[in-house]
Amino acid sequence: MSATNIIIRKRITRLFLVVGTILILLIGRLAWIQFVRGEELREKALANRMDDIPVPATRGTIYDRNGRELVVSISSDSICAFPPVVKSGDAEKTARELARILDLEYDDVYKRITKNTNFEYVQRKVDIEKSKEIRDLNLTGIDIIEESQRSYSKGKFASHILGFVGMDNAGLDGIELKLNKELAGIPGRIITEKDARGREIPQALHEHEEPVPGNNIYLTLDETIQYFAERELDNVMAQYQPKGATVIVMEPRTGAVLAMANRPDYEPAEYGTTPAENRRNMAIQFNYEPGSTFKVIPAASALEEGVVKPESRFYDKGYAVVGDRKIKCWRFPRTHGSQSFEEVVMNSCNPGFVEIGLDLGEERFYQYIRAFGFGRKTGIDLPGEATGILIPEKDIKPINIATISIGQSISVTPIQLITAVSALANDGLLMKPRLVNKITDSSGKVVRTEEPEPVRQVVSKSTARQLAGILEKVVNSGTGRNAYLEGFRVAGKTGTAQKAGPGGYVEGRYVASFAGFAPADDPQVAILVVIDEPQGGIYYGGQIAAPVFKNLAKDILRYLNVTPELSEEEIKNRSDQAEVLVPDVVNMSLEDAQDILREAGLKARIEGEGSWVVEQQPKGGIRFPAGSQVLIYLGDKGGTVPNGQEVTMPDLTGLTMREAGQLLGRLGLQINAVGTGLVSEQKTAPGTKLKSGSTVTVVFTPQVPEPSP
User: Fold this and answer.
1) Does residue 75 carry a catalytic annotation?
2) Which of 604, 606, 600 is closest to 583 using CA atoms?
3) Quick check: 562 and 519 in contact, CB under 8 A?
4) Count of H helices and E strands in the chain?
5) Residues 177, 171: contact at Cβ < 8 Å?
6) CATH code of the region 646-701
7) 223-565 CATH, one of 3.10.450.50, 1.10.287.1040, 3.40.710.10, 3.40.640.10
8) Radius of gyration for the alpha carbons in the chain, expressed in angstroms and rounded
């Protein structure tokens, strides 16, 4: 064999080996792609030629406890674009038309509809007129799809409880957020096959998975009772212009919240333009010092522990001394003197409650405070609940026990307080507050039922009923007289707490409140009214919160078909007792007011500090049983009333120009003085109702000295 042949064979062998190696590598690579990465690559190929468009589920409906719709979902149109298809037509013209109809910027629309994607929303949930106009234009690559949209047809009604949803129908607050998983349902999807340019392939693969509608929520809320609560809060806001206010109505036996209203409020459909402060649920997020409404806690605790009995005696000298601190009674410098425990509660006497708290002691008192649910969340079905503020037990001092006993040095939330009061109405059994009755699916089948949940027995049945009887006397004859409701036994407690600020308590800033339940012997409802920073110089809980309780209780009990039963005393007052005309003593000195009421055959019951009558209950001009008490609220003669508030024209006869000017100035009235000397005539008669800021004409006549004998 020649050398040339050998060389050729060697070259052929090398080539064969190279080709063989390449073939082996290619086969290995194909095997790797086919068997190892085959499934992954198949899915990627499908994704490249398949469009997966989500189909949102219809959100569940929210009902009140009687099945009345509060929030529903309705159909709305959304404008969408398929950019590859849009680019095949006149994209500029399409963008101009869409921008004109939808009131959007042309550049923004153009960028969106020519984006390097297969699907884009142009604008979601548009007006039906706009979607119709776009549909009529038949724009290339533009489609209109149907989505569900939340409808809050009742506007601001119960907005803090219901909450709201975002553009993607996800809950962002309230029940909408707390139960979002139940309400949202399971979204479906539409899958379509497309070509390389994103166009749908005729007779190609289509897949449609139907969405599963969300579940429906039935709340414990009663639409009618909620309306009553919101109506009363609107009246409070108009009359006293407070910073905020809340009302909670609870069913004591079950913990069911029948109403929860807050002011200020907001439109759920316009949550994006609403101040965050308006969206705050004051009922569960407002930490405040409760003042005297909290006194029911040491009262119940002391009765349960045997520290006091209803007949136990106390002596009020106007203040109590704890260490180097002097804690005054609201009535100081007047005193309550010798009084029983019942009278201590009826008079809301601070020194008496200080003594009760100190006798209980730190350990026992804190045990009951925590047992009633303070210092922790109640667990109500709403997001963002606050816990309140308790001084740590390791840091507690006698002065803290003393001040906590009168509702200071402790912060609570309204929901905590009404839950505790409801426990007293429920024979001492604390119930978990709840807002949800049941959950059903879209066909009406019950998915879950929320049963009443007992938490703990805080005090005995006998203690609870004993305290209820005492709180009934608070309403019949004590500081809660304005909550008295003829024909019903009402138990309750007033509260007026000065607000704390940097460096101590802030003058002129108060929280007025009233907590109670009715009927006292068979409680159907417990109601808490809290008014934060009322304006106009009237701020006592018994003065402005108790009447709200009365109005609410009256309407709610009638709505619940609770029959009133007149007591023997009420029947006697109706039949035997003569009625007298109540004089108007507002804007008079305390001494003059007492004299006038005495002459009219009525008694004066005094609340507040000062020497000037700023308000009275009942109002002047109505007929009232002779011998009854008229509550007169005292204030500072030097205060002023905001413009536009209704005031009563006082009797200026015999006053000097300076005295008349000061009195009218306090009422926010302007004086047009005619002449000099003492007041001899006023063009606006005493007792006339007029708005502060008005001008009144007063005639002065020189005083003529009497001739000397």
Assistant:
1) no
2) 600
3) yes
4) 23, 33
5) yes
6) 3.30.10.20
7) 3.40.710.10
8) 37
At residue 550's C-alpha, the angle toward residues 388 and 261, to 5°, is 45
The 10s digit of each residue's pLDDT in 506-539 is 888 899 999 999 999 999 999 999 999 998 778 8
Helix (H, G, I), strand (E, B) or coil at 2: coil
Residue 465 is predicted with a pLDDT of 95
CATH 3.90.1310.10 is the classification of domain 53-217: yes
Both tokens of residue 52? 């997966």
Name the residue with tokens 């806690």: 297
3-state secondary structure 357-426: HHHHCHHHHHHHHHHCCCCCCCCCCCCCCCCCECCCHHHCCHHHHHHHCCCCCCEECHHHHHHHHHHHHC
Q: Which residues of the chain have pLDDT under 70?
A: 1-2, 43-53, 75, 190-208, 566-578, 608-609, 636-645, 662, 666, 703-709
Query: What distances in angstroms separate CA 252 from CA 177, 198, 369, 522, 563, one per listed residue?
Result: 26, 62, 19, 10, 19
Which one is the CATH code of 572-635: 3.40.640.10, 3.40.50.2000, 3.30.10.20, 3.40.50.1860? 3.30.10.20
CB atoms within 10 A of CB 253: 16
Angle at 493 between CA 461 and CA 635, to 5 degrees: 165
Digit-coded pLDDT (tens) for 13-57:
888 888 888 888 888 888 887 777 777 777 666 666 666 667 778
Is 590 in a helix, a strand, or coil?
Answer: helix
> Of the residues 73, 131, 159, 292, which is catalytic?
292
The pLDDT tens digits of the residues spanning 426-444 come to: 999 999 999 999 999 988 8
Cβ burial 385-400 (10 Å sphere, 16+ → b, else e):
bbebebbeeeebeebb
Whole-number Å distance between alpha carbons of 631 and 611: 14
How much is the mean pLDDT over the chain?
84
pLDDT tens for residues 307-364?
A: 999 889 988 888 888 888 888 887 777 777 889 999 889 888 899 999 999 999 999 9
